[in-house]
Amino acid sequence: MNDSGFQGAVDSARIKHGVPGVSAAFYADGRTNIAASGLTNVATGVEMTSDAIMHIGSITKLINATILMQLVEEGTVSLDRPLLEYWPEFRLGDPAAAPEITVEMLVNHTSGIDGTLLPDRGHDEETIEKTARRFADVGQVHPPNGGRSYCNAGTVLAGYLSQRLTGKSWYDLVKERIFAPLEMNHAAVLPEDALLHRASVGHFRDSSTNRIARSSHLFLPIGYASAGATAMMSAGDLLTFLRTHLADGVAPNGTRLLSAENASRMRRSSGTVSGTAAFDCGIAWIRNQAEIVQHGGGGPGIVSFAFLHPKTQTAAAVLTNAEHGVDVLAELINPLAREHAGFEPFPLPPAPSNLTIAQPERYAGTYENSSEVHQVTLRDGRLMWAVRSQHQFYDSSHLEAPAATPLVPAADGRFLGDRGHGLSARDTAVIGFSEPDASGRMRYLNQRLWLYRRVAA
Amino acid sequence: MNATRRKFLAGTIAGISSASGTSLWPRATFAAEPPSQPASTAIGDLTDASVLKDAIDAARAKYNVPGVSAAVYAGGRLAMATSGITNVATGVEVTPDTIMHIGSITKTFTATLVMQLVDEGKLALERPVIEYIPDFHDADPAATRIITVGELLNHTSGIDANLLPDAGHDKETIENTVVRIGQAPQLHAPERARSYCNAGMVVAGYLCQRVTGKSWYDLMKERIFQPLGLEHSVVLPEDAVLYRLSVGHYLNPTTKAPIRTPRAYLPLSYAPAGSTAMMNASDLMTWARAHMAGGVGPNGKRILTEASATRMRRRFGNVDGPEAFDCGIAWLRVNGLLHHEGGGPGIVSLLVTHPESQTAIVILTNADYGATLLRDLVRPFVKARLGIDTFQDPPKPLADATVNPAPYVGIYQNSSVVHEVEAKDGKLMWTAYARASYDRGLRTERLPTKTLLPIGNNKFLGDTSVVGFVDPDASGQTRYLQGDFWLYRRK
Questions:
Q1: Are B133 and B206 a contacting pair, CB within 8 Å?
Q2: What is the number of other CB atoms lying within 10 angstroms of the CB of residue B474?
Q3: Measured between alpha carbons, how far is A438 from B363 in angstroms, rounded to an integer?
């Protein structure tokens, strides 16, 4: 696809799905393509340009883990050592868990720490260090290495560990160790830096009126910066970072960021999980089929996605400033990934089936982690499912879907649920259950990258 | 050090407060402003929006300032206009809803929060700070015991921490900085003198936090922005990014082109003194009108008792020594005008009110060299409208330049600047060393030595800056050097 073809594809995907702004970049066949479309902010009407910075959300976890791997390379830290060795005051709600948690578990989502997000305490209280200390009060979704459930808390701790080991703030580490050597000039990790740039903000769509409104908040709580609350950049700068990983640690400008061994180690499967793994993962990279490694990002009114396919030296980043931007991601990413890697990172949900569910009572129960509670009930022989958020985050109250809806069996043995967002067909919840106990009742429900532990019948 | 950085340092030295303006006020300045040109003679009726627009377009073009937002209120008429761009790196235009730095004008907000708490009986201006913050600590234990709430607001506490080095985002909290301020020495004993004091205002902001259990940021939103309906006003960087916003600029001395500041704010923890607040000119005018109306916003919402609003405007405090300026509660006073300037990295701003005639003017610029523009617009307006000519040029040096250097020679300093005054060949020579915080450290920059030419009354002209010497001791040696809003103590 040439530049104008790519620009056209970005424009049409954005318009088709009613997203205010999109910035996208891909690298394939030795060429870079960049396109930007729409507005940065519907309240100001400022146009999106290719140098506008946009939220990358959790894609930040790749940057965070790269810094940690640099420290591994420098001999400052070892992945297999317990975190307690480097931070003797590290505490968790479950005292038995803390000593078991290694540095590696922080970045491969196996620590089990149940701290997806904590309530926003306000600017001056939202520091990475204070947030790391707040995990002393949270429990476990699963024991360390006893499962794999997407874990923001671990990556906050990894960021804090980097601060402790270097004596520098995580923000300075990102600037000095990533942005500066890679010459990422349209990238920021602090709000006060973001406002020097043309900056995009998130948007929500009111599903009843279809009106698009600017997010009331720019970021998720800032104490979660190293998990991805604050980082913003142009798609082009994100592609520079991705290409550095694609080239096994060497940036397009020739700077080596990481040894080839450590860059490839990040992409290999990491950890030995004894229980349910909600997904496969290296060091921060989420591993997909067809040798694709990828990461998505979310935030208040934003979604983003990036992937690499080292075998064909392909990389892509798509940043959108709408909560409902997932269809834009799919429309732009799927053809690229299919063409180069023969795989679509955004598959449609599996088809519903007419399978009869044997012993449906095995699934009934309340399953939760710190961010969501899933209630599965049996009504007239049918499984019903309802989900609610544990926290209200900013404008997200409309995500509440308290009414129970039927759980429909899918052909692959999982279940389909209607989240009721009305955002996208891709938003259908695909739900699995795992680890039956002696009575046959399921211990875990999983949805997307998360596990939810059964807490009651 | 390249030109950008040098210019940035100069901006920081001027500090949060200085509109560096200063040919604006009949006081000295250390900012190296070009000599101001005679103010435009004919300036039309600025309460006419199109006249205001033409005036700021012309002034902006004349001084190569990237962006300006202005509001004028007089005779019951309100006019607003904007001109130029928010950021030379992005080219985004300044619009009426664009938020811009107000810098130290924020101090009038922080002081209003304190006065609200006084109205509610939660604070008393004459009580010692330590009564409300038992762990409040000043390097001088005698000062710790006696500094009052009121002294934080009228620049008489003497706490010498004009600006501390930036400790980095997560360390730059108001609470942490109050602890750091507690290690700062005293420039003078409380109420012994008046010298512009950012630290006092930070402590005042923290005091509001302690008394209410809410952050200063939330107090600003809940107690001021919301009731007055200020919808384009923010105090947090993460809120600012939601708006069309302006950033500061410096002039590249070689190319004479404006360049964007490398950083948007002075250290964040100085927020109650003015590092983070941004708003559009219209919201700032609403604020001015609320104060001129005795504490009631144009929307009819009362945010302050009339008594407290009036009290803020009256001269406040009994100073028994030198005063660098006259002051009420946060409001600076001159010739019946109540005003405040604002500075920051690459910005200057100005709010002038005249409650007696219900007249006010707001000008926000995004250039650190915008002071001359402010003067060009404000001087003729205030002169024509109110018959007050406050914005005069510094006096010419006396014909007889003979000086007895003895009373003046010495080293004078505060936490930001060290001044060396020497006698050489019968002339008085002046060299300033600016201790500026930049990034994570302090550095000192020597400014060019200048000859001090007498203008009378122990005042001198050093190039374009007025330097005064005050408070002689028994031997006749002056205890303080005065420049702009600051006093510097003899070492």
A1: yes
A2: 5
A3: 74
Confidence (pTM): 0.93
Put simply, the answer to whether B242 touches A214 (Cβ < 8 Å) is yes
Residues sharing a CB contact under 8 Å with residue B341, sequence separation 6 or more, in sequence order:
B17, B18, B19, B21, B24, B103, B104, B105, B332, B348, B349, B350, B351
Residues of A in contact with B173 (CB under 8 A): 123-125, 127
Q: Which residues contact B38 (CB under 8 A, 6 or more apart)?
A: none
Largest CA distance in chain A: 65
Q: What is the DSSP string of A28-72?
A: ETTEEEEEEEEBS-TTT-PBP-TT-BEE-GGGHHHHHHHHHHHHH
**Residues pairing with B407 in the sheet:** none
Provide, as residue numbers in chain A, all residues whose Cβ is less than 8 Å from the Cβ of B169. Answer: 127, 169, 171, 190, 192
The predicted pLDDT at position A425 comes to 64
- Which is more confidently placed, A420 or B193? B193
Report the alpha-carbon distance of residue B373 to residue A282 in Å, rounded: 58
Distance from CA of A455 to the nearest CA of B (A): 36
Give 3-state DSSP helix, strand, coil % of chain B, rounded to 5: 30, 25, 45
Q: Which of B131, B200, B192 is nearest to B162 (CA)?
A: B200
| Length of chain B in terms of residues written | 491
Other C-beta atoms closer than 10 Å to the C-beta of A397 total: 9
Among A348, A361, A39, A64, residue whose Cα is nearest residue A228 = A64
Closest-CA residue of A relative to B168 is: A169
Which pair of structure tokens corresponds to residue A15?
């318009």
Rounded CA separation B326/A364 (Å):
74
Closest CA to B210 of B135, B137, B126: B135
User: A154, A223, A174: which is closest to A449 by C-alpha?
Assistant: A154
Of B170, B174, B265, the CB nearest to A169: B170
Does the CB of B443 have a partner CB in chain A at under 8 Å?
A: no
Q: What is the pLDDT of residue B36?
A: 45
What's the token pair of residue A351?
């088809």
- Return d(Cα A421, Cα A356) in angstroms, integer: 27
Q: Does residue B247 sit at the A interface (CB-CB below 8 Å)?
A: yes
Contact criterion met (CB < 8 Å) for A44 and B97: yes
Distance CA B123, CA A218 (A): 34
Three-class SS of residue B306? helix
* Kind of pairing between the strands at A232-233 and A54-55: antiparallel
Q: Give the pair of three-digit tokens for residue A453.
A: 């532990």
Residue B385 has a CB neighbour count (10 Å cut-off) of: 18
Does B218 contact A122 at a Cβ distance shorter than 8 Å?
yes
Place of tokens 């900012």: B31
Asked if B163 contacts B172 with a C-beta cutoff of 8 angstroms, the reply is no
The pLDDT value given to residue B444: 82
Q: Verify whether the Cβ–Cβ distance B244 to A124 is below 8 Å.
A: no
What ipTM did this prediction achieve? Answer: 0.92
Whether residue B264 and residue A196 make contact (CB cut-off 8 A), yes or no, is: yes
Assess B173–A contact: CB distance below 8 Å, yes or no. Answer: yes
Asked if residues B408 and B466 have their Cβ atoms less than 8 Å apart, the reply is no
Reference A320, options A187, A191, A434, A201; nearest CA is A201
The pLDDT tens digits of the residues spanning A127-164 come to 999 999 999 999 999 999 999 999 999 999 999 999 99
Query: Whole-angstrom distance between the N-terminal and C-terminal Cα of chain B?
Result: 29
What's residue A391's pLDDT? 76
In sequence order, what are the residues at sequence separation of 6 or more whose Cβ sits closer than 8 angstroms to the Cβ of residue B96? B69, B80, B82, B280, B281, B282
Q: Is A30 left (phi over 0), alpha (psi -120 to 50) or beta?
A: left
Please name the residue of chain A whose CA is at the shortest distance from the CA of residue B263: A193
Q: How far apart are CA B396 and CA B456, in angstroms?
A: 10
Tell me the one-letter amino acid at B133: I
Q: Is the pLDDT of residue B297 over 50?
A: yes
- Whether B18 contacts B341, CB under 8 Å: yes
Residues present in chain A in total: 457
